[in-house]
């Protein structure tokens, strides 16, 4: 009995500390967000204010747009890279595939603040890439597109894809390590190409870790502060930047509003994540490795 529960006992202090601080912070934020009325009374004044605020909904839609696009682009790019690593592992060399996978993890070494600064100096209208194109006579002096501090949020999206795509690859790569080469050889005997084998036999196995990685990326990018603060615009602001500026504005009456924005954002993230989980779960039931519905039976 003891060997089974020993790992859980060892991590219990760290787990309790994390849960206490996390839940304590959320509970404290809820209590303070409900204290916008008279002292000692529970009031939903802060929530009524933000729900009727045009600035809040503009910030919410802006944040939802760049967070969703960041997740989609990073997921598709991560899947494409994993397919490439799968091809290298099966057809060329497994050690080369592992080396490339580790090389792709380099962006994870940079903090998000550093990643934002890298994107800024690379893609700003007078950054390194604009100067390089101008030196090569491939672009005019003022013809470089606005990709940083732009209204759509392309700079934020590029920075998040740069940081989160390696994380998605890290979550997906162990799946292809468990697939023996004999499966691919059997597929070739049955006349299935490598792309078809990946789509019909490997991709269904990637759906669970892809869902988990996408949820983590979406939840983080939706409430992250550093990159939108550096690469965003003054209006509409990202949710985290909007709440931060309200909280530090100097007026104590704005602090319940800032906390109500964060609590509301957490609830909206939970609702969106549950909705996406239900949709992808139903879709995932129609995609099973080795089933008749996808035209490939595992040998």
Brief characterization of the structure:
With 299 residues, the protein is mostly helical.
Count of folded domains:
1
The CATH class name reads Mainly Alpha
The average pLDDT score comes to 82
Order of helices and strands: HHHHHHHHHHHH
Whole-Å distance between the termini? Answer: 39 Å
* CATH homology superfamily name: MetI-like
Main location: membrane
Membrane topology: Multi-pass membrane protein
Protein name: Putative spermidine/putrescine transport system permease protein
Pfam families: BPD_transp_1
Describe the structure.
The chain is mainly alpha-helical and 299 residues long. It has one domain (50-294): MetI-like fold (Orthogonal Bundle), CATH 1.10.3720.10. 73% of the residues lie in helices and 0% in strands. The protein has twelve helices and no strands. It has helices spanning 2-33, 45-51, 54-92, 94-103, 112-123, 128-135, 154-177, 181-189, 194-223, 226-231, 239-247, 255-285. Helix 3 (54-92) packs parallel to helix 7 (154-177). It is globular. Mean pLDDT is 82; it is low at 291-299.
Give the key terms.
single chain, 299 residues, mainly alpha, MetI-like fold, 73% helix, globular, membrane, MetI-like, transmembrane helix, Sugar_ABC_transporter
Record the SSE blueprint:
Elements: H1 2-33, H2 45-51, H3 54-92, H4 94-103, H5 112-123, H6 128-135, H7 154-177, H8 181-189, H9 194-223, H10 226-231, H11 239-247, H12 255-285
Helix pairs in contact: 1-12, 2-12, 3-4, 3-7, 3-9, 5-7, 7-9, 9-12, 11-12
């Amino acid at each position: 009995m003891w060997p089974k529960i020993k790992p859980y006992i060892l991590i219990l202090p760290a787990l309790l500390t994390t849960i206490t601080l996390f839940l304590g912070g959320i509970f404290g934020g809820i209590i303070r967000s409900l204290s916008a009325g008279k002292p000692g009374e529970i009031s939903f004044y802060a929530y009524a204010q933000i729900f009727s605020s045009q600035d809040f909904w503009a910030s919410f839609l802006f944040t939802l747009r760049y967070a969703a696009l960041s997740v989609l682009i990073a997921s598709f790019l991560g899947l494409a890279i994993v397919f490439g690593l799968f091809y290298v592992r099966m057809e060329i060399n497994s050690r080369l595939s592992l080396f490339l996978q580790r090389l792709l993890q380099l962006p994870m070494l940079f903090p998000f603040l550093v990643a934002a600064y890298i994107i800024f100096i690379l893609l700003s209208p007078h950054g390194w890439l604009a100067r390089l194109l101008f030196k090569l006579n491939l672009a005019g002096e003022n013809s470089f597109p606005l990709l940083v501090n732009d209204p759509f949020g392309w700079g934020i999206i590029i920075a998040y894809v740069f940081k989160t795509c390696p994380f998605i690859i890290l979550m997906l790569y162990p799946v292809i390590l468990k697939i023996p080469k004999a499966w691919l050889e059997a597929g070739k005997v049955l006349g299935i190409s490598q792309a078809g084998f990946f789509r019909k036999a490997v991709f269904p196995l990637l759906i669970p870790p892809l869902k988990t990685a996408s949820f983590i990326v979406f939840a983080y990018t939706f409430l992250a502060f550093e990159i939108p603060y550096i690469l965003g615009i003054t209006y509409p602001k990202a949710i985290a930047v909007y709440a931060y500026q309200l909280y530090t504005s100097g007026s104590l009456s704005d602090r319940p509003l800032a906390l109500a924005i964060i609590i509301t954002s957490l609830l909206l993230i939970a609702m969106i994540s549950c909705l996406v989980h239900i949709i992808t779960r139903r879709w995932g039931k129609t995609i099973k490795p080795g089933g008749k519905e996808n035209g490939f039976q595992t040998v």
